[in-house]
Amino acid sequence: MTRTLWRYYRRAMSIPVPVEDLDVVIGRYGPRPFLLTTGDDARPHATHVAVTVDGNRLHCAIGRRTARNAGARPLVSLVWPPIEAEGFSLIVDGAIEVDSDVAEARATIIATNAVLHRPAPVAETEPGACGSDCLEIRIPES
Question: Residue 7 belongs to a domain with what CATH number?
Answer without folding.
Answer: 2.30.110.10
